[in-house]
Amino acid sequence: MHYLGHLDALKNPMTARENLAFAARWFGAAHGIDAALERVELKAQGELPVGYLSAGQRRRLALGRCWMIARPLWLLDEPTAALDAAGRALAAELIAAHLAAGGTALAATHEPILAGAAQAMIA
Q1: What are phi and psi of 66, to 5 degrees?
Q2: Whose CB among 21, 56, 98, 113 lies 3.0–4.6 Å from 103's, allowing a Cys bridge?
């Protein structure tokens, strides 16, 4: 399972790429690091230390880690925190794709990021 909490579990001195590489070595990866960076629209920031990224970029990177490492269950605490409108749409897209692939996502959120999916799961 993946747990994405309030803290993003990223190492500030390491680059975005290094953070993903560390996770891939530890957990295995269904997708490559470059693909994950591109998927969350952070390819240009891949060589920056995470400490230089904005809160929204850090959240995108953490979501990219979820996407990169295949796990059937995602536990998400405020997955859209610090994200702008484009980032919220990206988060919803990533979660919807995970659900469509047969995965499960449990999200505590104040935003209706996947209202239709939540309704389908409750019914």
Answers
A1: -60, -45
A2: 98
Q: Are 64 and 20 in contact (CB under 8 A)?
A: yes
Nearest alpha-carbon partner for 104 in 66, 64, 62: 66
In DSSP notation, 17-37 reads HHHHHHHHHHH--SS-HHHHH
Q: Phi and psi (nearest 5°) for 5?
A: -100, -165
Residue ranges per structural domain of the chain: 2-122
pTM of the model: 0.90
3-state secondary structure of 51: helix
pLDDT digits (tens, 9 = 90+) for 52-93: 999 999 999 999 999 999 999 999 999 999 999 999 999 999
In whole angstroms, give the CA distance from residue 111 to residue 123: 20
Q: Which is it for the CA torsion 49, 110, 6, 17, positive or negative?
A: negative
